[in-house]
Design a protein that fits this description.
The complex is a heterodimer of chains A (135) and B (264).
Chain A lengths: L2 H26 L8 E2 L2 E6 L3 E7 L3 E11 L2 E12 L12 E9 L10 E5 L4 E7 L4
Parallel strand pairs in A: 1-6
Antiparallel strand pairs in A: 2-3, 3-8, 4-5, 5-6, 7-8
Chain B lengths: L7 E5 L2 E5 L11 E5 L6 H12 L3 E7 L9 E3 L2 E3 L2 E5 L5 E6 L8 H15 L3 E9 L11 E5 L2 H9 L3 E2 L8 H12 L3 E8 L6 H15 L6 H5 L1 H7 L1 H13 L14
Classes of the chains: A alpha+beta (135), B alpha/beta (264).
């Protein structure tokens, strides 16, 4: 095994460990912050030619949606159509939710230069299609 | 308080069912509708809507010190188990609502407890409401209904109602266990599956499943309000969906996307 291969193996294993940790944290952390930011649900699907992210944005104002990709990190922000408050929800009743925000790390072979977004205004769901780089 | 001390607590293996009603009082409930969280939270959303829209009465809880996380949900200042049982006004239908995903080690004991409890109180039909994930759900405006029945007579009834037969494939989770066990014990179990998202809450699919249930039990269920509340429900159930996704991974739900070896 060459030195390059050896380091590549270590890098791969570390990436996997970070992914496992992220997944673990994702299921234990809350999906909102006290200052009114909600994390949307994202359904991630990998196909042979593309990645698809289906993002559910209930009450989201799709005209106030921004998607940005920098260094393989996709950042999505979307304002809510109106403030949402749950008045009987224990000690959290005062929180007013105002916007969605999330960051998603894209796989190394994702090609965001050709990213496409489809919007379903009726259901407030968007589909982000990102082609995969051909080897 | 909505409930106080149980009238009776019955144990099935490591599962305890606490009752706040007399199940043997006439008329004996005929249908046991199950709303467990899985694909698209179809069962959970549908059962919750059924209970609230029909103003059903809380009559039981399911708990397990050995198998469930130590969680208590609070409703109207009443502490209770996240798995609750409700009954309709006419006592024809009991509905199970679960506000938490079922941990993988609890699936077999809970499924057996449901079957044994249904038999104990003289239930005639166990009806499982569920989602069946389809990859093109975003393009589907009207989800299709599929069914799986534990015996031929029940399959005929479902067929007459125009449901699509689930011919080949896998199902995973509590409904899968309840179905095969019901077939073995000759218990009537009909699973009603609506096409749904896998890991996004799907109130439209829940409405479709309820339409199917309505046809089967012959009780009108108006789903207009469910569709009106869809946005709010999707917002409220985000965390439950995320936890359920994790539970679905543990219960090998990915099997449902595979073709069986013996496919014919």
């Amino acid at each position: 095994m060459s030195l390059d291969e050896f380091f590549e193996r270590i890098r791969r294993r570390m990436r996997e460990m970070f992914e496992e940790m992220e997944e673990e944290l994702a299921t234990t952390r809350t999906m909102w912050s006290p200052d009114g930011v909600l994390e949307p649900l994202v359904s991630f699907n990998a196909y042979p030619d593309r990645y698809e992210l289906v993002v559910d944005l209930p009450y989201g104002d799709l005209n106030a949606l921004s998607i940005e990709v920098r260094d393989s990190l996709l950042t999505l922000k979307c304002q809510l159509k109106r403030e949402i408050k749950f008045e009987k929800w224990g000690v959290f009743r005062e929180i007013k939710f105002r916007r969605y925000e999330t960051c998603i790390r894209l796989p190394p072979d994702a090609d965001p230069s050709d990213l496409r977004v489809e919007r379903d205004e009726n259901r407030n769901i968007i589909r982000i299609i990102i082609p995969r780089l051909r080897k | 308080m909505l409930i106080q001390r149980p009238i009776r607590s019955i144990s099935f293996d490591r599962i305890i069912i606490h009752e706040y009603y007399n199940p043997y009082e006439e008329p004996i409930p005929k249908y046991f509708v199950l709303g467990l969280p899985d694909a698209g939270l179809v069962g959970a959303i549908a059962s919750r809507y059924l209970v609230t829209s029909k103003n059903m009465k809380l009559i039981g809880e399911i708990d397990s010190p050995a198998l469930f996380p130590p969680v208590t949900v609070v409703h109207k200042h009443t502490p209770m188990s996240p798995i609750q049982l409700y009954i309709s006004d006419d006592r024809r239908m009991i509905v199970l609502v679960s506000e938490a995903p079922i941990p993988a080690p609890a699936i077999y004991p809970l499924s057996y407890a449901i079957i044994e409890y249904a038999r104990e109180i003289g239930i005639q039909y166990i009806l499982s409401l569920s989602g069946i994930a389809v990859p093109n759900r975003l393009q589907i405006t009207k989800p299709k209904l599929y069914y799986l029945a534990s015996n031929d007579k029940l399959a005929e009834e479902a067929e007459k109602l125009g449901f699509n037969k689930l011919e080949e494939g896998f199902i995973a989770g509590p409904y899968a266990v309840i179905m095969k066990e019901s077939r073995r014990r000759n218990i009537n179990n009909l699973a009603i599956f609506s096409e749904s998202f896998f890991d996004l809450p799907d109130p439209e699919a829940a409405a479709t499943a309820l339409t199917g249930l309505s046809k089967f039990v012959g009780v009108e269920i108006n789903v207009d309000k469910l569709l009106e509340e869809a946005e709010l429900l999707k917002l409220q159930t985000r965390e439950l969906m995320r936890q359920t996704k994790r539970a679905m991974t543990e219960m090998q739900k990915h099997y449902e996307k595979q073709m069986p070896l013996m496919y014919q």
